[in-house]
């Protein structure tokens, strides 16, 4: 990306400005040149090129996020599909325990959540705070996503996080009725 050019903001992401390489650290340069930035930006041809050259779709970056985490958070269905076809682990965890399904659920990316579930994503997986993907979707008011997760795993409604809260307890009012058990 050219210096100073803004990328379009995603539903969860503020606009960002590319930093000229003279101001980047080596880890930042590695990230920008790697599969993680390509996945974050939805650059399918670049992701494919990097997979063909390096072949490891689930390699985490220095922060512990995989390309699938970035693509899931930013709503890039095609990149997610490509990564999963190439063997990306759909239940890969960050150091904080987040899975790609957590990321997609928080941002309300219903088609990506469907794709991840179809590839075996565990809806009962909890992050470091004990929160499931349903907690994430409910707190952001993603009604259709909450319904999908509950349809896939009704037991999610009763899972308590590290503070003892069920998804209904953290839900915005617009989705609470879905979570009544």
Automatic annotation (TrEMBL):
PANTHER family listed in its UniProt record: ANKYRIN REPEAT DOMAIN-CONTAINING PROTEIN 39, ANKYRIN REPEAT DOMAIN-CONTAINING PROTEIN 39-RELATED
Full protein name: ANR39 protein
Keywords: ANK repeat, Repeat
ANK repeat residues: 63-95, 96-128, 129-153
Alphabetical list of InterPro entries matching this protein: Ankyrin_rpt, Ankyrin_rpt-contain_sf
Family annotation (Gene3D superfamilies): Ankyrin repeat-containing domain
Gene of this entry: Ankrd39
The organism of origin for this protein: Pampusana beccarii
């Amino acid at each position: 990306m050219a210096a100073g050019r803004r990328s379009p903001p995603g539903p969860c992401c503020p606009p960002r400005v590319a930093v000229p390489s003279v101001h980047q650290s080596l880890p930042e340069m590695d990230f920008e040149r790697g599969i993680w930035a390509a996945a974050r930006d939805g650059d399918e041809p670049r992701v494919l090129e990097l997979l063909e050259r390096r072949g490891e779709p689930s390699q985490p970056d220095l922060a512990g996020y995989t390309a699938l985490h970035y693509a899931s958070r930013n709503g890039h269905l095609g990149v997610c599909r490509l990564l999963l076809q190439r063997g990306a682990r759909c239940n890969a965890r960050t150091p904080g325990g987040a899975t790609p399904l957590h990321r997609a659920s928080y941002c309300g990316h219903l088609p990506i959540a469907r794709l991840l579930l179809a590839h075996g994503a565990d809806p009962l997986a909890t992050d470091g705070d004990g929160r499931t993907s349903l907690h994430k979707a409910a707190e952001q008011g993603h009604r259709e996503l909450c319904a999908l997760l509950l349809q896939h795993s009704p037991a999610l409604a009763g899972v308590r996080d590290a503070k003892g809260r069920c998804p209904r307890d953290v839900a915005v009012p617009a989705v609470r009725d879905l979570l009544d058990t």
